[in-house]
Amino acid sequence: MSIAYLGPAGSFTEAALSGLDVPHDSAVPYATVRQALDAVRRGEATAGVIPWENSVEGSVTESVDTLAAGRDLRIVGETLLRVEFALAVPPTGTLASIRQVLTHPVAHAQCRAWLGDNLPWADTVTATSTAQAAREVGTAAVPGRAAIASPNTLRRYGLDIVASDIGDRRDAVTRFVKVARPMTGSLPTGVDRTSLVVPLADKMQHLHTVLEEFARSCVPLTAVLSRPGGFGLGTYSFLLECEGHVDDPAVGPVVAALAQRHAAFVLGSYPRADPGRLAWST
């Protein structure tokens, strides 16, 4: 069985596969996060790997929303990847000739300052991934176009790098998660993370009681993200992440209480990635 990942070949997600012990010969690229997760849902793949959070831009909301909407898949692992960005053009292109830059929105956000200083006249066009941007620029060879991606990805698609290390932060890190069907959930390791969604909708006044559950139980929260609740302006769901496994004595009762009172549901309990074992995307 294959492992689905956000492609195409050369994407940052592909670079993250080794950190999740995914053999490259079993990995199949998909054009979007939704397509990768749907492949797992249909049983075409045993698991999927998608970007989840970036240290500069924050959560990858497409991944959070797509996974939370289905409620039928679970996060079973994560890995960290240090990301580096470069700008490249088709052969014979130059920095001065660039009028349009293709890249993923998260990558664009991390290179915004450099683009503003060096290419203020260029338009930015959204791509489903940095690798897709590199492939489009490399295959179409439209004058005035450029792509932002990792240096290796840009070279892979026959592009010439005209500017290196253009990220606003030199220490940018992206977290990727491995997602599978619930029957393949992770057992407690002692160094775990639990991700859950609390759909408060129009009951925002209850958020403080949700947070008090964690404070009362001394369970450390590691992330709180609000997302539109789907019931009109001012309604929200919250992605909460905490240290520990849902089967731990401290975490389990908190999750159970939130499930009973606010219909919270778990996206996964899984081993936390070791920040000391960062892989590089270049």
Oligomer: single chain
CATH architecture of the largest domain: 2-Layer Sandwich
CATH topology of the largest domain: Alpha-Beta Plaits
Number of strands: 16
Q: What is the residue-averaged pLDDT?
A: 90
Category from helices, strands and their pairing: alpha/beta
Return the domain count: 2
Helix content: 25-40%
Taken from the alpha-carbon principal axes, the silhouette is globular
CATH class of the largest domain: Alpha Beta
What this model shows, in words?
The chain has 282 residues and is α/β, with parallel strands linked by helices. The chain folds into two domains: 180 residues, Alpha-Beta Plaits, CATH 3.30.70.260; 78 residues, Periplasmic binding protein-like II (D-Maltodextrin-Binding Protein, domain 2, 3-Layer(aba) Sandwich). Helices cover 27% and strands 33% of the residues. It has nine helices and 16 strands. Strands 1, 2, 3, 4, 5, 11 and 16 form a seven-stranded mixed sheet that branches. A hairpin with a 7-residue loop joins strand 13 and strand 14. The longest helix has 12 residues. The radius of gyration is 20 Å and the shape is globular. The model has no long low-confidence stretch (mean pLDDT 90).
What is the structure about, briefly put?
This protein has 282 residues and is an alpha/beta fold.
Summarize the topology.
Elements: E1 2-6, H1 12-16, E2 27-30, H2 33-41, E3 45-54, E4 58-59, H3 61-70, E5 74-82, E6 86-89, E7 100-103, H4 105-110, H5 112-118, E8 123-126, H6 130-140, E9 145-149, H7 151-156, E10 160-163, E11 173-180, E12 192-201, H8 207-217, E13 221-228, E14 236-243, H9 251-262, E15 265-271, E16 279-280
Parallel strand pairs: 1-2, 1-3, 5-16, 7-8, 7-9
Antiparallel strand pairs: 3-4, 3-11, 5-11, 6-9, 6-10, 12-14, 12-15, 13-14
Helix pairs in contact: 8-9
